[in-house]
Amino acid sequence: MWTKASQPQVFAARRARLSSRLRGPALLVAGLSRPRNFQHNRFPFRAESHFLYLVGRSIEGAALLIHPKGATLFAPPADPEAELWTGPMPSLTDWSNELGLEVRPIEELQGAENIAALPPQDLDCALWLSELLDRDLEPGGGEELQGADAELAESMIALRLSHDDAAVAQLKEAAAVTHRAHLAGMRATRPELREASIRAAMEAEIIAAGCATAYGSIVTVHGEVLHNERHDGVLTKADLLLADVGAETPEGFAGDVTRTWPVSGRFSGTQREAYEVVLAAQLAAIAKVAPGVRYLDVHRAAGLAMVEGLIGLGILRGSAADLYARGAAALFFPHGVGHLLGLDVHDMEDLGDRAGYAPGRSRAEAPGDRYLRLDRDLAPGMCVTIEPGFYQIPRILARAEEVGELESALDRAVLARFADVRGIRIEDDVLVTPTGYEVLSAAVPKSVDDVQHVMV
Amino acid sequence: MWTKASQPQVFAARRARLSSRLRGPALLVAGLSRPRNFQHNRFPFRAESHFLYLVGRSIEGAALLIHPKGATLFAPPADPEAELWTGPMPSLTDWSNELGLEVRPIEELQGAENIAALPPQDLDCALWLSELLDRDLEPGGGEELQGADAELAESMIALRLSHDDAAVAQLKEAAAVTHRAHLAGMRATRPELREASIRAAMEAEIIAAGCATAYGSIVTVHGEVLHNERHDGVLTKADLLLADVGAETPEGFAGDVTRTWPVSGRFSGTQREAYEVVLAAQLAAIAKVAPGVRYLDVHRAAGLAMVEGLIGLGILRGSAADLYARGAAALFFPHGVGHLLGLDVHDMEDLGDRAGYAPGRSRAEAPGDRYLRLDRDLAPGMCVTIEPGFYQIPRILARAEEVGELESALDRAVLARFADVRGIRIEDDVLVTPTGYEVLSAAVPKSVDDVQHVMV
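ok -> C-alpha cells follow
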C-alpha cells in the first residue's frame, strides 16, 4: 500500500484558522536535520509537527510566517551546485505553486522582531531561531512560555486537539500501515528467532509503504520492561512477544498500536487468562470514550477493570473498589492508560503538559496516575490511545516498599502460576466522535481467537 | 545471522596504543542522543566513533578520559527511577567488570582543565563538552584544531587508519550483513513495485541481524541522482535499479556496497554494455590497490578505464589518454572513486579532510577530482571503497558550459541509444593487505551472469 497525501487546500484552511486566532505575527519553523556520526551523515529530516500541520511538507530550514491576515513561507532556495547530488529540487516558485502560498527566500527573514514562536527541540534549532527572531530562545517544554508565545501555543493546541477530516484521514492511513506491520509480525514469529527478526518484518511493511516508524519499536519477550529498546532476545515457544510498533505517514501523522502474542501461536492457559483480563480492561476503557468524559476517568476505568480481573484470577483478594483505591492496579499496571495521538505519537508533547492537561489540571501523585500524559475532557475530533497492560515488574513486586500493605491482598502462590506472563499490553488508537468513539486500529487482530487464527 | 562482538581486550589494547602516543590527557565523549520531533522521542543513540573505537559500547552521556598512563570511563550512574521503563541497567561496577576499565560517575568530571578533545558533532554535544572541559568548543570539522587537540586528532587518525584484526573482523561482519541485504533486494525486485519495497526488503535483513543502516539507503531507478533520497518511484521492467545500502554493526563498523540490477531480471543489450564498462573500470581500480599506491592514482585508473570503455561503446571518440586528460571521465563519472571505510561510512569525516588527505595534500580542482574524499598512499590495514559509476546527468550533459569542447568528442547519436541506462554504480569494500588487497564484499553478486542468476 502507499499512503494518500492531503490536498493543498487542507493546509490553507488550517493556516486560515490559525490566522483568525492570532493577534500578531508568529513563526513556525520546520527545523534542521540532526547529524548522526558526522556532519554529512544525518538522520532523515523530519520537520517539526506544528510546521507539518500548516505546510504538510518536510522542507528543511524553512519557516512559516503567519499573521492575522495571511501567511508567507520562507525557504532556502534550491542550490544549483547541490543538484548534482540531489537531482533537480523544487524552486521557490515550484513550492509556491504546489502549496498555494507566497514563498520567499529564507534570507529575507533575518533579524525579524516581535514575532511569536514555539520552543525549538534542540540547540542547533534554538540558535537558528534565535537569530531569525533576534531574541534568545532555548530548547524545552511549553510550561515556561509567556505572552504571545504562550498564546500561539494555546492556539496551536486548540487547532490540533480537534482533528479535522484530513487529519483523521492521515491517522487512518497510519493505522492501516500499522495494521499491516502487526500482521507481518504475527506471521513472522517463530521460536528460535531473535526479537530483531520480528521487528524487521514489521518495520519492512512500514518502510515499503513509504512511511517511517513513529517511535522506536518495542518488540520484546520481556514486555515487563516498559520501554525495552533491546531486540537481541531469542524467542522460545513458552514466551509471549509484546510489539509496540507504529507507522508515521510522510505528512507526519502517527499510528501507535501494541499487541502481545504467543511465540508458539497458541496462548497457554495462564497466558490466555491474563490476556483476557487486559483485554477486558482495554474494552472497558474504550467503552468509556465519549465527548465530555474526563480522560482520567477512562484511565481509572481501565485500572478498576484490571483489579476486577485479577480478583477473578485469584491474584488479588478483596473488594475491587477498595483494592483499586489502595493502588492495587499500579502493582501490575503502573503507567497511564494512554495519551493524545496526532502528528506526534505523544501529540504536542513538545509543549510539555500544556497540551495533555487541561488548564487547572496537573499530574496526580498516586502511583497509578502519576505517569498519565493526558487529563482533558474528551471532545469530538480528539484521538487518544487506550493501552492498559499487565506486567510482573521485579522493581515493583519484589520490593516491600512498593507493595506495602497490599501484600496481604496479594496471593503470591497464584501469581507464581503466571510465570509465563511477564508482560502484556494491548493498545489501540481511538478517535472521539460526536456520539462516542471509533477505533482506528480496529482491524489489527486482538481477540485470542483472532490472533491465533492469524498465526496459524 | 547475528554479528559477533569484539572481546574487551581489543578495546584495552586500542586504549593502550592511544595512551602511548599521548603527551597529556584527552577526553573522547560518547555524545548525546538527538531528539526527533520532541524531547522524549529521540533517534536511536549512536555514540561518536572515536569513543566506540576505544570503548565499544554506545553509552549515552559517557566520556573516556585517557592519558599517557591509563584511562578512566566517566558514565552516568543508572537511574533507579528509570528502571521501571528501561529495566535493570548496568551499574558503574557492571560496566567496569564488563569493560575491564575504571569507571566513575560523570559528575566527577565537571570543569576539568587542559584536556584535549575532538570536535563535537552538534551544539548540544558542544555545550556539554564545553562545560566538561571548561573551555569553548564548537561543532565542526577538524581543519581548525590546534595544539593538543590537533595532536589527539592525528593520533586517532594514525590508529584508525590502520584497522587492527578486530576492526577487520567487524568490517567483515558488516559486509556479510550487507551481502544478505543486497541478495534480498535483488530477489524482491519486480516491476510495478515501488522503490520503497526493495529498500524495505534490504533494510529488513539489516534490522534482523541487529544492525543499523550505516547511512541513508539509496534505492532508486534514478541512479543518475547521486544521493537520491526518494523511494517513491515505481519500477518498470525497462529500468535499472541502483541500490547503495550498507549495514553498521552494533560496535559501529560500516559496510558500504552498491549494486545496480535490471528490474526485469535481465539486462538489455545497452544496459549490459554500459554495466560491463563500469565493472571493468571498477576491477581496474581494485587491481591497483596495494601498499604504497596513491589513492588518487586508483581514482584516475577508474576514470581512464571508463573513458576507454566509452570509446569502445562509441560514446566517446578519440584517444583515451587525451580524452581523460581533458576531463571526459567526469562527464559521466563526476564523483570520487571512493573513500575511507571504518567506524564511519566516510571514516573520520568528522575531522574534515584531515583523515582523508595526507599532510601536504588537498583537493584537486579538476571536475573529475574535486569530490575525491581520499588522497593518501595506501597502507596495509586501510579499508577503502571502490565505486565508479556511469551516469547520464542532465545538469552535466545538457549544459554547454559543462561539456565544453568535449562536445566534439561526444557521439550524441550513440549516447541516445543508451537511454535505458540512467545511472550505474558498482561499489565494493576493499581492504589493503601487505601484498595487495582483499575485497570484503566479494560475495555480493556483481557480474552480469551472477546478478541475473540470483534474480531468476
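The mean pLDDT of chain A is 96.
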